[in-house]
């Protein structure tokens, strides 16, 4: 390997820094776009099931039916729309105005009283109709209605001085995310997507821009070595990426209230390794294509989409088909998402962090090494 001249390297890095400052698109992508994406992912994407619109048809004016209806309407998780006609409420279910409907029949209170005095074997029926087009919401409504029924039975027994027949009780405790707010794990995951955009998309334009403008020929005619050329493209964008990473962490913790329970130095290590992998991939695309448009499209397909779809950021990897799950092991963002969510929510859990850090290191070495092999030092591509 040729000797690296410190003087030439500093001069090349300064030249690249001037180009970044003079290019408004680079500044926008590095500092404005991350904040916008962070707010979109943090507040625009919400996986919490809150205020689900549900219809309630009470055909019984009895006390038991009204008390059960009060349990539903008092829930902070449901937005209950009451009605007296099944057909009208079914129309709302069909047009999407409500996601489900609960029907208390005209004999609900009577059957409850008869079942209590053992005058009948028939149980009082509660009908639930849900929109199966949204399975997650439908399952939530079914589970929540069963929980509401248990609450109503407990309150009813307490009001009448009857013994509580429940011999067990559930006391949930949520580790790492006690408030169960989806933003607390979506925001750390979204940072990996943002860093992918900064690392791969920005650097995918660097070398291609030099070839399109004709400045690469002039650069190759000098005594600059391949290592100096490669490092001069990496160092400025690494600094830019780490500044953007710091900005994302600041916005996430201060403005969004996302807890950061791990150490900053571990966050710095995993971010540096992932950024090295993204920079290497972006430079490789730029070096091979020598066209800004093609390189940018390649960065979106090879980096941004896998980081969004196959990293576990939004979709659970364990729920993916086996072939897709196998492909996800090749995606660096998978390990970065896992490391970030661990650092933010749980802290420095070493078995998890060491495994992810090892894979990120291998990924960074692979992409940077491949880029070094493909970086041309002559006009004929050698």
Automatic annotation (TrEMBL):
Membrane-topology descriptor: Multi-pass membrane protein
Localization, UniProt: Cell membrane
Residues annotated as transmembrane: 27-45, 185-208, 235-258, 264-286, 293-315, 349-370
Keyword Transmembrane helix included in the entry's annotation: yes
Cellular component terms per the entry's GO annotation: plasma membrane
Record-annotated ABC transmembrane type-2 domain positions: 138-378
One MF term in the entry's GO annotations: ABC-type transporter activity
Protein name: ABC-2 family transporter protein
Species assigned in the record: Solimicrobium silvestre
Organism ancestry: Bacteria, Pseudomonadati, Pseudomonadota, Betaproteobacteria, Burkholderiales
